[in-house]
Write a structure and sequence with these properties.
The structure is a single chain. The two termini are 29 Å apart. The longest helix is centred in the middle third of the chain and has 36 residues. The chain folds into 3 domains: 126 residues, no CATH class; 96 residues, AF0625-like (Rossmann fold), CATH 3.40.50.10700; 196 residues, no CATH class. Helix content is 57%, strand content 9%. Helix 1 runs antiparallel to helix 2, helix 1 runs antiparallel to helix 4 and helix 2 runs antiparallel to helix 3.
Length: 447
């Protein structure tokens, strides 16, 4: 349903913009002109893409939870795209698209996006209990899975039953796993490592598989439904996948080119923001404009990450070397610093780190050396995250948010390993899109 509604959202934008452009060319303009043979056709396609990007960034069509929210979001998308085109026309000094098309599309697409969102919400309601899961594994894996399903899964699922391996083993005519699946009407069986080694359990799972019930290992289920790797499998799983940034030269080159383009484009708002932030600091954030903090980069090489300062300069804290774990509502953050953090403008100077090659746009978030040392001592496989260039944003940031302590860092590591395992241009673009949604407040997550 999600793919269908996203396609409808895009086709609606394309149909409205192209339709209004054709009407303007044939009936409104004086004299009339051939729309498809003019340069306005290319600009109309660009406007369609702008509407689609803005829609995805704001969370259309599937994220708004009510008609009111969908209306506000759709209006925000229309206004943003219209303002973007208008500013471009002002800079170029030419009417790239008629106001009839720009404003007409903005107005017509609001009810269309609201209707598509209603369809998405109905589909989401039907899907919420679609995957009914029976876990065969340890109690520890059960507790972890319950906690992980309560976060933000990639696919909706509910754990309807749990059996330990001995409890799921066949005894004479009794087949506990088969009976439990039939009783709960489960659609997915998940087997942990021990369950996969039990012949009776695997045999019953095979019978159920033939009857249409899906069977997954714990690693497969975490990847497909949760977008992460289970903590109990991290060390073992770390050996059995290629890392694209290392093993695929073409991807590594494309990724670096993307970083350079985005970094150089990002230099424009960064330079423009400097006088604004400097002036605002005089009122609510007195002290140095920037701060630098040592972080661990690719291959374990340290570098100085650059940010706009958001905390009191005389207070030791997460803005300084050897600091404590960052808190969401840290009392040391200044008045204007809170605005910088909430808007994520404090991260903008990191475009310099991207251009210099110390950061990528997408990758594991770099940590301070002291935490890397601590986590490497407790997690022997932790160093794998340093095989690639760290990122301004990443899969762990959009899925989990802040790491407030070592437990959170371990949770985020599960998402980072998932990213390493599935690294690619398409996945990077997906993370960037999720980040836009997070910044605009239309999807949970953080950095």
């Amino acid at each position: 349903m999600r793919r269908v509604t996203r396609l409808l959202s895009f086709l609606g934008a394309a149909g409205v913009v192209l339709g209004l452009s054709k009407i303007h060319a044939a009936y409104v303009a004086d004299p009339a002109y051939d729309f498809t043979g003019s340069t306005r056709f290319a600009w109309a396609v660009g406007y369609i893409l702008l509407l689609w990007i803005a829609g995805y960034g704001f969370g259309l069509p599937d994220l708004p939870r009510s008609v009111r929210e969908a209306t506000l979001v759709a209006a925000g998308v229309s206004v943003s795209a219209a303002v973007g085109v208008s500013l471009l026309q002002l800079v170029v000094g030419d009417a790239l698209l008629p106001r009839f098309v720009v404003l007409g599309s903005a107005l017509l697409l609001i009810p269309w996006q609201v209707a598509v969102n209603a369809l998405a919400r109905r589909g989401r309601t039907r899907d919420e209990g679609r995957d009914r899961v029976v876990l065969v594994g340890s109690m520890e894996e059960h507790d972890r899975l319950v906690a992980d399903l309560a976060l933000v899964p990639e696919r909706a699922a509910v754990l309807v039953a749990h059996l330990t391996v001995p409890a799921a083993t066949t005894h004479g005519d009794e087949r506990p796993l088969v009976e439990k699946v039939l009783e709960t009407q489960a659609s997915v069986i998940v087997l942990d490592r021990d369950a996969q080694g039990a012949e009776d359990v695997v045999g019953d799972a095979a019978v159920l598989h033939e009857a249409g019930v899906r069977v997954r290992s714990l690693v497969q289920f975490y990847e497909e439904w949760l977008g992460k790797l289970p903590i109990g499998e991290l060390e073992r799983a770390s050996l059995f996948f290629d890392i694209s940034e290392i093993h695929r030269v073409r991807y590594a080159r494309v990724k670096r080119l993307m970083d350079l383009v985005m970094g150089l484009v990002g230099m424009i708002p960064f330079v423009l923001s400097i006088p604004v932030v400097w002036a605002a600091n005089l009122v609510g954030n007195r002290g140095p404009l920037f701060y630098r903090q040592e972080r661990v980069g690719r291959n374990g090489i340290p570098f100085a990450i650059l940010k706009y300062r958001s905390m009191l300069p005389h207070e030791p804290g997460p803005d300084e070397q050897g600091s404590a774990w960052t808190q969401l509502d840290d009392p040391r953050v200044t008045r204007f610093g809170r605005i910088l953090r909430k808007s994520h403008l404090d991260e903008l100077p990191q475009v310099l780190n991207i251009v210099r090659g110390e950061l990528s746009v997408v990758g594991p978030r770099p940590e301070q050396p002291r935490y890397v040392k601590e986590l490497s001592a407790s997690l022997p496989f932790y160093g794998m995250r340093h095989l690639v260039r760290p990122g301004l944003t990443g899969w762990a940031q959009v899925k989990y948010g802040y790491a407030g302590d070592e437990r959170d860092a371990v949770e985020k590591l599960q998402y980072e390993f998932f990213y390493l395992r599935h690294q690619g241009v398409r996945f990077d673009l997906r993370v960037i899109g999720r980040t836009v949604r997070s910044v605009t407040g239309t999807e949970g997550g953080g950095r």
